[in-house]
Amino acid sequence: MFLLDLLARKTRLPAAGEALPGRPMPITVPGTHAVSGRPLAGPYPEGIRTALFGLGCFWGAERAFWRRDGVFVTAVGYAGGATPNPTYEEVCSGMTGHNEVVLVAYDPAVVSFAELVRLFFESHDPTQGMRQGNDVGTQYRSGIYVGDAAERATAEAVRDAYQAALSEKGFGRITTEIVDRPAFYFAEDYHQQYLAKVPNGYCGLGGTGVACPVGTGVAAA
Fold first, then answer.
1. How much is the pLDDT for 6?
2. Which listed residue, 97, 118, 121, 214, has the most CB atoms within 10 A of its CB?
3. Structure confidence at residue 213 (pLDDT)
4. Which pLDDT value is given to residue 184?
5. 143 with 102: CB under 8 angstroms?
6. Which residues of the chain register pLDDT less than 50?
7. pLDDT for 40-73, tens place per residue?
8. Where are the domains of the chain?
9. What's the chain look like in SS3?
10. Is 57 one of the catalytic residues?
């Protein structure tokens, strides 16, 4: 019974009044990306845009994006919850409402937002609800956090194309949330570019093995 109660709590988003209080000061983050050496939190060069994705454990998710041509820098953090400046332990409790997310700063002249959305769908299983593989909880939900109406339209169009491909192969409905971009809080230093620092570390990504018919051709991780 205890395990069932714990599972139920970890897969239910807390109401705002239930969320942990957090803190006013943000977590200190390193100045540069461990792989590229570029500024993690900016300022970014003129013309660089940002996107925000949640696709399970952010360790493997971040690596999927920093390897993509046209991506200037990546960082991991928390978004979509009610607790200001949460810690990793607080997010893992299920009592902040936050998702583990990747901030992607990219050059739209090299890689489009649509291509990043396709990479997002091709790098995880977007049908699992509040989990990704063995990782269970609200922090592992699939999400695209859009900055404007154009990004929303693009994300929804790619989702619908990917759903058609999944349905043809007998997979379930996509559970990805596509919502307006919330506040982003940087995660702790040791989470940033984790798989560059620990090459044999836990990745956590799994895919359906089904590529979007209008995708980039990137296989699921």
1. 59
2. 121
3. 45
4. 98
5. no
6. 1-2, 212-221
7. 999 999 999 999 999 999 999 999 999 999 999 9
8. 2-197
9. CHHHHHHHHHCCCCCCCCCCCCCCCCCCCCCECCCCCCECCCCCCCCCEEEEEEECCHHHHHHHHHCCCCEEEEEEEEECCCCCCCCHHHHHCCCCCCEEEEEEEECCCCCCHHHHHHHHHHCCCCCCCCEECCEECHHHCEEEEECCHHHHHHHHHHHHHHHHHHHHCCCCCCCCEEEECCCEEECCHHHCCHHHHCCCCCCCCCCCCCCCCCCCCCCCC
10. yes
Tokens read off for 54: 């949640």
Residue type, 68: R
Catalytic residue among 57, 92, 203, 212: 57
Domain 2-197: give its CATH architecture.
2-Layer Sandwich (3.30)
Location of structure tokens 């936050």? 98
